[in-house]
Amino acid sequence: MNFKSKNPFLNNKSFSATTAARRDDVHQAKIIDYNQEMTLSGTINKTFLLFLLLIASAMVVWWMAFNGMNAMVPAIAGAVIGLILVIAAAFKPQYSGYLAPGYALFEGLFIGGISAIFEIKFPGIVTQAVGATFVTFAVCLGLYKFKIVKVTEQFKSVVVAATLAIATYYLITWLFSMFTGYQPVHYGNSWMSIGISVFVIVIAALNLFLDFDRIEKGVQQKMPKYMEWFGAMGLMVTLVWLYIEFLRLFSKLASKD
Fold this sequence. Notes:
The protein is mainly α. The chain is built from eight helices and no strands.
């Protein structure tokens, strides 16, 4: 079975379509400019740039929240617009050079707002979540680079199936909580809720391996230069998900003290 990365930016369909288009270009022109091909260094540089943009916009909302201003409006707007840009890039990866920086800026507004809310209630939690996110990213990157963890088809199947299960569970419980008085178990700070958060974090981390693999294959297949933005944006989506889940986990642990 051909499972795809849950990350909408790094799914097989988008990359396969781009690869097919690239083959047509190669067939029509014998000489291909290397500077117009996707590279690993280019993807890394763009990921770093997107990270800086996200941090910059997050700091603006953070400053607003801690200076008595209403930070929820820009945070909510950032989340909505960021989602729209995610969907747009998933369908039109060739515009990633414009959509990716926009996503980083607007998602930064959301991250800044949600981080401020957690920090006010649980001082020091943001530092813990940021540190945990970067350590997880570094460990996963090291495991992938040194081939300790190999992304096989079976590995993809398990990770994608688990990710889809999580997405389905979140959607169903969210709908129930909106229209009924049902309180999902993962909303509280019970040990079961904490266990669910740990499980989700593990699956989010495993999605990083799928992202690394897809970017590496994109470089090997010599995809167009704009796919660097596409790959960088995909990594940011996964890292944001991972960071939010760490915030939730640490808040549950802190509330039990």
